[in-house]
């Protein structure tokens, strides 16, 4: 039998019943259900299916596909075509709804594959979110573009750094030689602007200079510190909601980098909420969960920290939405355009990813950082 069967006796003697097959299916990032073709009784669910359906194997025991997805005509047609031998497999994009009064969950917009197993009584249903493939392609494309931009900015920063020091030094020498003190106002402009550009260059180079200081840390201590800093700056009109899963294990990370990364995001959100703060309706939610069977940068991880920073502000302008992580791109007048670039750099240095979904009234910065094997055994 498959390990952790959901329907006792349903898969006895099946060629797919070897334990290594069950283990292999559990390693898959896509959701997989095995069911009896004639009755639609569930025989097996992998870990990704549990996470997608938000149900444990124990909760799934004794259920059928009808209990999970109702009388879905498109899904039933796919199953009938494969079960009757008219097709080796069926693929289709579907919306899987829950059954009213039985199990409630959000509709799943997914790409579904139905295939027959070696045992002619058993069938397999595999699915993955439609946006997962799009996100994977988008993240890879953005990652390459951001890396190219970062390399360009680092090279540009190094090219600027040396002549900038010479300009500042020349301005200081010139200041000593000026016959009138009133003229020193102009040399001070040169010196101050040189210092400002030097600070900008240092910020561009900073993420690549300092070695990582990885240590076990509680992500909620990081978030509480950020919450205190932001509320100290915005004491009136802003509410920061804690939505924590306090059972999360410690994660291995650089505390200073993670504080800076999340602080940049939360601080940007608070600044974008200026109108809402004046009305007293501004709200930022800090949400932590554990994500299971996630794929980041084409690597699968059993568990990951799932962190959301959600605000009810005006949203990110359409014209910069796809470029917000690029250097020097800012939606705020006077912004340096480096805060989100640094946040992405720090998160990527933890083998994680950061993405954003935004529309008027809702902006969600989503961070995932994988747990290492030694962290999972908690």
Please, could you describe this protein's structure?
- Strands 2-1-5-4-3 form a five-stranded antiparallel sheet. Strands 7-9-10-12-11 form a five-stranded mixed sheet, sandwiched between helices.
- Mean pLDDT is about 80; it is low at about 1-20.
- Helix 9 runs antiparallel to helix 11 (about 340-350).
- It is elongated and about 100 Å long.
- The chain contains twelve helices and twelve strands.
- It is about 40% helix and about 25% strand.
- The protein has helices at about 20-25, 45-55, 55-60, 65-70, 75-85, 130-175, 185-205, 220-235, 255-270, 275-280, 340-350, 375; strands at about 30-35, 40-45, 90-95, 110-115, 120-130, 215, 240-245, 250-255, 280-295, 300-310, 355-360, 360-370.
- It has about 375 residues and is of the alpha+beta class.
Give, in spatial order, the strands making up the sheet with the most strands: 2-1-5-4-3
What percentage of amino acids are in beta strands?
15-25%
Q: Biggest β-sheet: count, sense, barrel?
A: 5 strands, antiparallel
> What is the average of the pLDDT values?
79
How much helix, percentage-wise, in residues?
A: 40-55%
What class do helices, strands and sheet pairing give? Answer: alpha+beta
Task: Work out the number of β strands.
Answer: 12
Radius of gyration: 27 Å
